[in-house]
Design a protein that fits this description.
This protein has about 35 residues and is mainly alpha-helical. The protein contains 1 helix and no strands. It starts with 16 loop residues before the first helix and ends with a helix.
Amino acid sequence: MGAAGKPHVVLVPGPVQGHIKTLLKLAKLLHIK
């Protein structure tokens, strides 16, 4: 296994509806970096 490329992150939302929007914002921020 080589470490060539970007690291991968898996984000799993909680059961609360409000957490999904926050999680998507975090995912977008992580994707930009």
